[in-house]
Design a protein that fits this description.
Blueprint lengths: L2 E3 L7 E7 L3 E9 L5 E9 L5 E5 L11 E9 L7 E10 L2 E2 L4 E6 L5 E3 L2 E5 L3
Parallel strand pairs: 1-11
Antiparallel strand pairs: 2-5, 2-7, 3-4, 3-6, 6-10, 6-11, 7-8, 7-9
């Protein structure tokens, strides 16, 4: 699980970008260090929309020590074997912060689920 270092005074967003012809559903939760869920977001990406940018409710400083958890489901109603690539990232000041979690593979006859996660580390 990669650490993300960011400016605590700036806004923060989570970006999910999908390169796939399949239907993709996502759920993102922000949890504190003790596991308490602070915020949740969900949605779908289809063939006509490949990127979701979800702004978080507070400035980045509120999320120090928190975890950004993603659940991403790729469903292929026409069968298996189609390729997909997903980038999951944190965005600040209109720029993706590194590292970017990249997941790729081929669909299966059932839904493929991926679980990206970041830890937010605020420099002292």
């Amino acid at each position: 699980m990669p650490d993300i270092y960011l400016d605590p005074s700036q806004d923060l967003a989570v970006k999910t970008k999908v390169n796939s012809q399949q239907n993709v559903g996502y759920s993102i939760s922000i949890n504190d260090a003790k596991g308490k869920q602070l915020e949740t977001y969900s949605g779908n990406l289809g063939q006509n929309q490949d990127t979701a940018i979800i702004p978080l409710k507070s400035k980045a400083g509120k999320y120090g020590g928190c975890f950004i958890n993603g659940i991403i489901d790729i469903a292929d109603p026409n069968g298996e074997g189609n390729t997909y690539k997903i980038n999951f990232s944190v965005v600040q000041n209109s720029s993706e912060l590194t590292p970017i979690i990249s997941m790729q593979g081929k669909t299966q006859d059932e839904t493929v689920t991926r679980y990206p996660q970041f830890h937010i580390n605020i420099p002292l």
